[in-house]
Amino acid sequence: MYELEQYNNAIATFDVALHLYSNFAEVIHYKAICLQKLGNSAQVTQSFESANREGKLGNTINEDNAVYELYPYQIRW
Q1: Burial, 57: exposed, middle or buried (Cβ in 10 Å; 0-12, 13-18, 19+)?
Q2: Could you tell me which of 66, 56, 64 has the C-alpha nearest to residue 75?
């Protein structure tokens, strides 16, 4: 949904993921981008700060648990 610029649907999908893993930094980050695209500035700064904090704490998932490999949409904290 994110790539299709269907930001409301992407946010709904991100919310499902965050329900399962509330500290998932990349999901918080991409949800913040969607909120920004929709002009929801009230939550954007807080979401980016939360994503940055969680990312620095290591609350992220590596594809196939390979910490040395890059994968699409990976963010380097």
Answers
A1: exposed
A2: 56
As a whole number of angstroms, the distance between CA 17 and CA 37 comes to 20
Instruction: Please list, residue by residue across 15-47, b when 16 or more beta carbons sit within 10 angstroms of its beta carbon and e when fewer do.
Output: eeeeeeeebbbbbbbbbbbbbbeeeeeeebeeb
pTM higher than 0.90, yes or no? Answer: no
DSSP conformation letters of 6-42: -HHHHHHHHHHHHHH-TT-HHHHHHHHHHHHHTT-HH
Tens of pLDDT, residue by residue over 47-72, are 999 999 999 998 987 666 666 666 66
Reduced to 3 states (helix: H, G, I; strand: E, B; else coil), residue 71 is: coil
